[in-house]
Design goal:
6 helices; binds adenosine monophosphate; 43% helix; 147 residues; alpha/beta; globular; Rossmann fold; 5-stranded parallel β-sheet
């Protein structure tokens, strides 16, 4: 059985290409739709009401910049992208929400295979796995410092 719609979670770091490579190769096997998502944590999450200024203009610029970067990233892939999602909110719940909303049957995320304290603190891959309503593929990302 092949997947119908893959959602690739992209954090726009250097490791995104490694994760995308796996997602693209799976998509090619089944002529599957491939969409990309990047989640922006709103500035208000970090600063709340502590900053006595209107952050909306800065937030808008950050959103536009992320949209452009995700679109550029999509253009580097050897596969045509169905949809690009730049959404703001909590990363794991936004990935779950979009996956449900768009009948995604596989979410692909990167994973560092952390251990010790970092594992206890959790990772995005962990968070996405818990509560997902479809399959999740955690692609092991090589961490140059420890591998
Ligand atoms: P992390 O556990 O934060 O190092 O992230 C591991 C993986 O989670 C990344 O390779 C992405 O697949 C996904 N991810 C992390 N942050 C985001 C984000 N802001 N938007 C979309 N995906 C993300």
């Amino acid at each position: 059985m092949s997947y119908q719609h893959i959602l690739l979670a992209v954090d726009l770091t250097d490791e995104s290409a490694q994760v995308a490579e796996k997602a693209v190769s799976l998509a090619k096997q089944g002529a599957t739709k491939l969409s990309l998502i990047h989640v922006i944590e709103p500035l208000s999450f970090a600063y709340g009401g502590d900053v006595p200024m209107d952050l909306s203009a800065i937030q808008e610029q950050l959103d536009e910049h992320a949209q452009q970067r995700l679109s550029n990233f999509g253009n580097t892939l050897d596969y045509s992208v169905e949809k690009l999602y730049v959404v703001s909110g909590h990363t794991e719940s936004e990935i779950h929400r979009v996956a449900k909303q768009d009948s995604v049957d596989l979410i692909v995320v990167g994973s560092h295979g952390r251990h010790g304290l970092a594992l206890l603190l959790g990772s995005t891959a962990n968070g996405v796995l818990h509560g997902a309503s479809c399959d999740v593929l955690a692609v092991r990302v090589s961490d140059k410092k420890s591998d």
